[in-house]
Amino acid sequence: MSYLVLARKSRPQTFAEVVGQRPVVKTLQNSLARKRVAHAILFSGVRGVGKTTLARLMAKAINCTGETETPPCNACPSCREITLGNALDLYEIDGASNRGIQEIRDLKDKLRFLPTSSRYKIIIIDEVHMLTTEAFNALLKTLEEPPAHVYFMFATTELHKIPITILSRCQQYELKRVPAAELSSHFQRLALLEGFEIESAALALIVREAEGSVRDGLSLLDQIFSFGEKQIRTEDVVEVLGLVDREVLMCLTAGLLDGDRAAALLALDEIFAFGMDIRRFTADLMGCFRNLILTRIEGCNSLLDLPEQEIALFKEIAFRYSLETLHMKLNLLMEAVEEIRYSAQPRLALETAFLKIIESGNVIPVAALLGHLEEMLQKCRNDTPPTASPSPSQGAQPPASIKEQPQPQGQLYSRPDVSENAVVQAPQAGKESAPPPTSTTAVPEKAATLTLPESSPAPSAPPTAAKNIELHPHERDIRRDWPDFVKYVQGQKIWMAQDLQRADSVKQTDQELHLRYSDPVNCALLRQKENRQFLNEYFLDFFQKNLKIRFIIPDQQDAAETPEADTPQSKRQQLASDPLVIMAAEVFNGQVGDIRVGQQSR
Ligand SMILES: [Zn+2]
Description:
Elements: H1 6-9, H2 22-33, E1 40-44, H3 51-63, H4 77-84, E2 90-94, H5 101-111, E3 121-126, H6 133-144, E4 150-156, H7 164-167, E5 171-174, H8 180-194, E6 197-198, H9 200-210, H10 214-226, E7 231-232, H11 234-241, H12 246-258, H13 261-274, H14 278-296, H15 308-318, H16 323-340, H17 346-359, H18 366-382, H19 421-433, H20 442-450, H21 475-492, H22 494-501, E8 505-508, E9 512-516, H23 529-543, E10 548-552, H24 556-561, H25 568-576, H26 579-587
Parallel strand pairs: 1-4, 1-5, 2-3, 3-4, 6-7, 9-10
Antiparallel strand pairs: 8-9
Helix pairs in contact: 3-4, 5-6, 8-9, 9-10, 9-11, 12-13, 12-14, 12-17, 13-17, 14-15, 14-16, 16-17, 19-20, 21-22, 21-23
Bound molecules: zinc ion.
């Protein structure tokens, strides 16, 4: 006896045997039970999901004469004829090879006569989208007013190619890809019936390859059964189907993410040695990244359609990286795949792309980075004892002479202003006791600038003016939301926003908001009484706080006392040792390239 392929052997003979497609099956069965079957039905969906199977089952059920509640009975003469394939009143037409108008005319001629042995004539046209426009037009009239003894069943993989005039005359059923779990249990059952035992990982591979198509999966199973072994192991499936081993793929994915160049390139070598189709392989690799991204997004696990243990494996890797990192790597990979398509040297192109992906590093979300910065600033504040010596986060001890400097607790960091009395003295004191500034000895200076007390612009004001200001939770809002506030002001008065942007620093003290300007010209307009009122109003509107706004501008007298502080060189030096700059360089893992001071810097 000739060998019958699994797909034909296991073709469902009842609606209950259909794999997947439950909603469609239920609707069809209900229409049969209520005798309300449409005269033209169109099944659409990807290959191997059961379109023709359902059409044949409907043909059987419509003509079934058996005594059963759920036709087809598979026992009556009509059912048996259809099963054996010699039913006279069932026409199965392949739309691809009978696509012309003449074939449709011939068919229409046949439909004029009543069925020979069954109750109805049933026409199944597979791949109906292949019909020519004329052929479709010839069908139109018949579809609109079909003879009472005729039923049409159409099947198509390309619904969009069917003229709308035909679609509107048919009852449409869209068949979905079969979920992995259903395919898996179906294949398992068939394997057992055939006397094979499949490892669960091997089964998962077959299901993955089937991509929701029952027939594809069955063809693969056929191929593996022909391999001969009764115990089917994962290695066998990998070998027979020419797949990339999951392990190699995972190894490569991890290598790309961890920045392990050797692991990635060696895995690629293994894949090439295996003779794997490059397009196939890159698709698998992208699939891996997609799975990682989906596992990383909460609530998306249902989209994965993978066995539990594989999801767990993906989760383990995915949660080591930010979603942004995974996304960026996938994007780079997709770009590479696009390039490889036209490359004469796909291997070289792929290796280069892998190195590029690795070199791209990991993405830290801006929010996390800001959080990190915030943490460091907080630490900076906490490290400083409330009454005595200031010490920056770097842990360097400032010279003793600075220890006496008052430490404003609530100070938002601001750039050192050389024109202020207290400010200038601190670094000077540091310089006196410290060795000449080099890259390593810049620390004391840094310590000094960080502890600059904020006082009123008047030199006569005691340096303790800003002392003991509590850190209010809302202070952070002013700093964080300042750019938003400037934007808000921009909506009211553009010039005012521009002038606000020119401020060197902004900070809130107890009851006041200090806007520091190194160049008084920049705030001259703002300081006018009526503009000040506007600014006060905007501030109140935006921050819901009524603070007195004070402009802090350099005092000429002070500047004269500390002439060297005004030189661009010293300014640059101070900026270079600015804790915020150092911290930013540390957080972004960068270095200061150029420091510009003076008017041009703006
Ligand atoms: Zn029957």
